[in-house]
């Protein structure tokens, strides 16, 4: 959420993003971005009249001056202060470097990255897996956060140890070991096509010599998550936090969905903390884009443990990556730092 310092820039960005949208969609979009809630019918009616007399930019400016938005900003400032306090306390407890295993990774961009906040509190090492990426020995990013980051890239496809067909789709980020099977007119997904395929051997995660412990396991592999997990039983014993994409509605043939992944992870000592959902609208029916179907979500799990080092890394990740100050404090309460 932006603060008061970048109001003008954020206002201009919102207006640019909404250019060409219907007035109702514009109002819905800005409410979600600024007030973090759905626009109510009364609000839509009021602001529709306002925009017709003034402008979209003026509408955004009015919301930025509202008491509701100001209260959210104040709450954010208090929350950020508490998160910073907990993160500082926790970083003194963690080992010298946090290890992240990123399956389905992409190379570090030149723009802010999700690991940057972690690297502001301790050194971070990322081991990335992507069969279509170039292998790289450890590369150092000393200016990445206050403590810097190192990254090793392995062009290895993780799976069950057998060879599988990789279906390369028109949007490369949706390429998968599973064939596309989009049966409804969902935005973007219904436009996808498979443009090529290739045979790719996979390796079991348990057969790869990975650093131990793994503070965070991140997975984004388009339906193959359960296959990888089922062949990582030994590795999972050394994992503290998992951040994994899972489908709620099938858009690949025979795709394992969230309930199967959840049952598996719970049976191996992990508990679900949160879900960050992605909803897709049906298209071609009305001019309004609505949050029709929960298509997929990113799931956040932590391992049940009494190990103080694991609890410390879980608390630091909870505070810095997920903004969960109370969870971080709760985890710390089970350590000698309580």
TrEMBL record:
<dbReference type="InterPro" id="IPR038255">
    <property type="entry name" value="PBS_linker_sf"/>
</dbReference>
<dbReference type="GO" id="GO:0008171">
    <property type="term" value="F:O-methyltransferase activity"/>
</dbReference>
<dbReference type="Pfam" id="PF05050">
    <property type="entry name" value="Methyltransf_21"/>
</dbReference>
<protein>
    <submittedName>
        <fullName>Unannotated protein</fullName>
    </submittedName>
</protein>
<feature type="domain" description="Methyltransferase FkbM">
    <location>
        <begin position="126"/>
        <end position="272"/>
    </location>
</feature>
<dbReference type="InterPro" id="IPR029063">
    <property type="entry name" value="SAM-dependent_MTases_sf"/>
</dbReference>
<dbReference type="InterPro" id="IPR053188">
    <property type="entry name" value="FkbM_Methyltransferase"/>
</dbReference>
<dbReference type="InterPro" id="IPR006342">
    <property type="entry name" value="FkbM_mtfrase"/>
</dbReference>
